Amino acid sequence: MGGRVLAMDTERSGNIVSDTGWRAIVSKYNFPDRKKSIWQLIDSIGPLLILWIMMYFSIHISYWITLALAVPAAGFMVRIFIIFHDCGHKSFFKQDKWNVRIGFFTGLFTFTAYHSWHRSHNKHHATVGNLDKRGEGDVMTMTIEEFKAASFWKRIFYRVYRNPVVLFLIAPPLIFIVQNRIFTRKLQKREKWNIVLTNLTLLLLIGGLGLILGFKVLLLIQLPVYYLASVWGVWLFYVQHQYDRVHWYRTDKWDYETVALNGSSFYKLPKLLQWFSGHIGFHHVHHLSARIPNYKLEQCHKENMLFRKIEPVTIAESFKSLRLRLWDEKSNRLVSFTEALSKA
Fold it and tell me: What is the pTM of this model?
């Protein structure tokens, strides 16, 4: 099926990907290096703790200095989230017990419960790019037909939801600080208890630090860091599957390899931003094999012809994707509200 889908889409995408041998390719990279994993923990958490201390003392000098320090601190927070993310894919350590332990620990930094988040995220990996299985761990996206057939209030809701101010400036901190504290009925018992344990641990940590440092000081330090990190994190997730050349399919045409390589972006970032984001810009490689640790994604991309024709999404292009709101099944592409409604 992969060959058939690729043949249909070559004219539009310009990407021709071999449909053989990818399993052999990723097998060379889909195992962790314990020393690299441990060092990544050190070079991510260590600098963040140092920056937190500097922010604490800077408050007594100038809050502008504190806010300036919050920028790199947010970068390290994103990097820690990628470690948390890798643990859920069992790609950070060989032993699952260490993935769970480090996943829970790094989840405390990012205000995210380990088991429940990864249940949703792993389902996202299994259904990404499938128009018939949207809604789990995805940015809500309607087709043109669905939008036109929706009720007035649903269309209003969708327009508000897809507004960049809401999607990137209001929603991100609410997701990590509020939504991640709540569990739903569909979660398994273990996942619910993990959220409870995460919430209780965070309550003790925040309460203890608040009593020691003062709750106002703690808020002045933590709030800008978490806000910036959550905005950056949501933006990265958005760009991974919401861009001009993205490919989505109905179930009968959906193919794992094709969607991994043509339905997940290669987000080309400057080296510093690539490092802070844990190389997650090589998202096409990650979706082909989630067992590849983040620090091997770039190596895998560069060493194999399979990825040579994948066209990168530049920073400039990624900002243009903000206008893309609806999926047009006739042209097989994301379009703006203006373009969609002109097709009446």
Answer: 0.90
